[in-house]
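Comment on both lines for my students:
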Amino acid sequence: MTRIKHASTLFLTLGLAAGLAACAPAGSNTEDGEGEAAACSVGISMPTRSLERWINDGEGLKEKLEARNCDVDLQYAEDETDQQISQIQNQIAGGAKILVVAAIDGETLGPTLESAKEQDITVIAYDRLINGTEAVDYYATFDNYQVGQLQGQFIEEELALAEGEGPYNLEPFAGSPDDNNAAFFFAGAWDVLLPYVESGQLVVPSDKSPESNEGWTSIGILGWKSADAQSEMDNRLQSFYTGGEKVDVVLSPNDSLALGIESSLEAAGYTPGTDWPIITGQDADAANVKAMLADRQSMTVWKDTRELGAQVNTMIEAIVAGEDVEVNDTETYNNGVFVVPTYILEPQVVVKDDVQSVLVDSGFVTADDVGL
């Protein structure tokens, strides 16, 4: 993965407003010929059922498509790359005309998708870029660099780092090394936080502090597993916080890692409201919203996956009709072969005081889901 530009939030916002259209008509990828409609037969490949967000994404998109009488095959690969490849191959063999793929490993799907391209199947990368192949037509995602920026800026503001406060003890975590998005999350946050590490306002007692964005995989948690994040935090606390030192802030790129980190801190005797550190997150999973309400998690970056599903549904509708597919970014997401036409959505920060007005009132979660 190569990010062509380390875009500022302003630049991306301007890019979003541009509302560019894809260069080629969607109908050019159909077996019936350029500009003609394709059958609405869609294969959806999601990475796992172990994370709440992927269940919501898959089922939500399936429901939207079936409401338009599309034939939909939804599969979950349970974080097994070989299983995802096999499932996609079966969808190709089963006659899918459009594939929506949230890749487990964005580097391994090329040969399978090239087979799809040979059969004029349109491929949409869903929230995770698929790298190293021309056989991906579109990408729909949130601004993942901005996700990290929002996490880093939250820490910066909460600790008044820009005003010179510190030093504070920081423990940074990164996402799964096989997830293309994890690099963007970390880069966005580290571009904010690294200068404070270099100035000494943020101190990393574990020394697990990459010298640049490129070193993020050294602190990545494979598969985004809560248990592995908990084990890693246990090791750091037991090895580097034995003399009365306290963790002041943890950069967690998503909610599943945050849950494990929170369990580790609780086991180590940290108490919400007294010495509990700032902890970031992403996804607004119900368990983490409960954690925010209990002062165990400071924030989450909310990506309203219903909007992402709605956008992909709109893209598929255009493909089926043989119309141009709307994108709003044709510069940012280079998969190592070409720049993939992309539609970017914007994330937002949610804190404890926003739960009712932002998450519950919008219907993203119910009051019962989060204990309100």
